[in-house]
Write a structure and sequence with these properties.
single chain, alpha+beta, Aspartate Aminotransferase, domain 1, four-stranded antiparallel beta sheet, two-stranded antiparallel ribbon, 18% strand, elongated
């Protein structure tokens, strides 16, 4: 969507039910989906009424509470704040919405030490591919919380 590409089929899962129940889905035009007939395709949890209800409630909360718009707005703000950190360790800050990666230069010695230091200071981030710090805050994060986190992140990214 962000790149103006429309796939024939999209398979989604993981957070579709807000992390409360295993749910996945296939998104496609009716014409394509009509190629499947009942019983031709299934899954371990397929057709579970509870899973469907949880997924519907989760999608309703995402839209009614403006979490998608908040992710876009706060993600841009968070990336702008991270990009302003002057650190010899940072190669690039990139992301989409609230899924943000801070790529470190090879000489930084890997992301683990930074992630551990962040954790010791109350911020959870994930080391990804050894040299990327992945931030994935909750979709309800606000500017006040980001403003609290940035000085901590700055201190850690500028450590020797």
């Amino acid at each position: 969507m962000h790149e103006d590409v429309r796939p024939d089929v999209t398979v989604i899962g993981k957070a579709l039910a807000g992390g409360f129940y295993p749910v996945s889905a296939i998104l496609a035009d009716r014409e394509l989906l009509s190629l499947f007939t009942p019983g031709e395709h299934g899954s371990t949890f397929g057709g579970n009424p509870l899973a469907a209800a949880v997924a519907r409630a989760s999608l309703r909360v995402l839209t009614e509470e403006g979490m998608i718009e908040n992710a876009a707005e706060m993600g841009e703000y968070f990336m702008d704040q991270l990009s302003e950190i002057n650190s010899r360790h940072v190669k690039e800050v990139r992301g989409r919405g609230l899924l943000i990666g801070v790529e470190l230069k090879p000489e930084a010695g890997g992301a683990r030490r930074f992630c551990e230091a962040l954790q010791e200071n109350g911020i959870l981030a994930k080391e990804t591919h050894q040299h990327i710090i992945r931030f994935a805050p909750p979709l309800i994060i606000d500017q006040k919380t980001i403003d609290w986190a940035i000085p901590i992140v700055r201190n850690i990214l500028t450590m020797p």
